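Hey L., structure's done. Input below.
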Amino acid sequence: MKRLFPLATVLFVGFSAAQEKPLSEVDRQLLLERLAEIKNSSDSTVKGRLQVALTAFRKGRASDSAAHDLYLDCIEKVRFEDELKKTSEFRDWKTRHKERTDTPAFRLALRHQLNWLVLTLEVAAAKDSNTYGDRAIEVVDSILKDAEKLKGQEKILRESALQSVFAEAYSVKSQKIESWPTSPLDLATLYDSIVLPPLRDGSSATSLRKAWLKRIEQEGLFLENWTATSSSDKDRKPAFEKWLKEDRQNLLWNMEVDLFRCGDEKGASIRMLQHLKENLNHKSAPRWITQFTSLVEGGPTATGTSETEGPPASPRD
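Output:
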């Protein structure tokens, strides 16, 4: 006689029918304890993987050659071993890479990428990015110091470090860090989400102003070093020139608004008036005048209770 249903299905249905009853309190407790065991096991695995990756990445960032050696190992794993390609194919790729893309600038960019990746994973392990602002600024400064040597390799540093071949090879791509910039060149996220917020408690207007000035300095240096040149080498680069005239003025204004809201009302308001006097032809001047009036009169913009609640607008607003 031919079965209409698989035996396993029949047994499962019968078992289910026989076991239909609510969970007892003991059942609930046992199930929750088992869930906790599974979760702890998973957390332990993730933590162990993170530590292995950090050890390898710290070793890799020690020198340009070490960074490149680690890069080759990761390429071999991700693009060849994991895809079951032949060893000879990797050797052929390595030859092409050496001839076309293996340069001192490329190796240095890999090293800086690893440095940011290490910091990113340390933040992930700590689960708190608020105390890492100063170290992030130091990493960005180290990149800027090497800006001339890194020309032509900016793309590597603009990419997410968590999407790099290093992160993929060591299975740490899925690390989630709220508000943390995964690229060291994402200065807007770094300052707006990490560096500036802790300084807005009103305890030190000097520290807040210093951080804003560092941001403006770094944004300018990036554009000055890494934008297309103009038709004449003696001329400033168009993007940098535009930034000097427009975005830098917005950043300076936003800095003073931030300082005003955080308690330095007298000093900030005097500097805002001077800023308006010097930049009346700026396209943002009408907005600045409206905002200044609201701040001084004590309107909603000054208290952060309207649509402008939170940090000042971005420089292109």
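The two ends are 78 Å apart (CA to CA). Residues 43-172 form one domain.

-- N.
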